[in-house]
Each structure stands twice: as C-alpha cells, then as structure tokens.
Amino acid sequence: QVQLVESGGGSVQAGGSLRLSCEVSELTFGFFAMGWWRQPPGKQREFVAGIGWRGGSTNYRDSVKGRFTISRDSAKNTGYLQMNNLQLEDTAVYYCALSSSGKEYDYWGQGTQVTVSS
Q1: How many whole angstroms separate alpha carbon 73 and alpha carbon 14?
Q2: Which residue from 112, 105, 114 is spatially nearest to 34, judged by alpha carbons?
Q3: How far apart, in whole angstroms, are the C-alpha atoms of residue 15 and residue 47?
Q4: For 111, phi and psi rounded to 5 degrees?
C-alpha cells in the first residue's frame, strides 16, 4: 500500500523556519511529480509548491515565493519543503502529494500541522 508520511511540522514564531519532509513508500518515487498543499483553518486546501519528477522544474504560489523551497531526494524516496520567514498566514495543515500525470494528484499524505504565532 502506497504511503506518504509527512513530518517536521510544529509551532514556530513569525519569522522562524521549519522543514517538512515527506517519506514515500511502496512506489517508485522518481516517476511522480510531487506537490505540497495546505489547508488553513476554515479555508479550502490550496496549492503551495510543486516539483517535477526529475526535480528540474518547480513552481510556487505567489505568497510563498522567495520564502519556501521545494526539493526531493529520489534516492531517499523523500521530498522536502523548507519554509523560511514564516508568517501568521502560513498556519495550516500541510500535505504532500504525488502526481503521475502532472495535473491531478494520485496519492496524499495524512498532513502535518504548522502553527505560526506572533
């Protein structure tokens, strides 16, 4: 059974940093594009960042550009989201997901909470 397990969430003050990890098992990680999504309290889930299956192309939502960096290590079957200069509005449950098509996401993790306080 395919599993995506996020870790690295927690509570941090505004301006701080966190690094999320997404460990993937039971499939060939290198064949999938990966994305990070988040769901702020009371809001719909939104796209945060994506990276191609070879890791060469990345894209971000405007509000995190210059602060967040997505990366992947196919040898470790793990993806990452480095989050710097965290803001209150970054508070959300963060999910990693995999896409075989580059359009829709086939597999999702269970989510990890990120809470930013002033």
Answers
A1: 28
A2: 105
A3: 21
A4: 95, 150
DSSP 8-class letter at 106? -
SS (HEC) of 51-88: ECCCCCCEEECHHHCCCEEEEEEHHHCEEEEEECCCCH
Q: For 118, which DSSP code?
A: -
CA distance 24 to 18: 20
Q: How far is residue 33's CA from residue 55's CA, in Å, rounded to a whole number? A: 8
Closest-CA residue to 67 (of 14, 22, 117, 105): 14
Q: How far lies 13's CA from each of 32, 35, 51, 98, in Å?
A: 33, 25, 27, 30
Q: Enter the DSSP assignment of 10.
A: E
Along the 118 residues of the chain, how does pLDDT read in single tens digits?
889 999 999 999 999 999 999 999 887 877 889 999 999 999 999 999 999 987 779 999 999 999 999 999 988 999 999 999 999 999 999 999 999 887 899 999 999 999 999 9
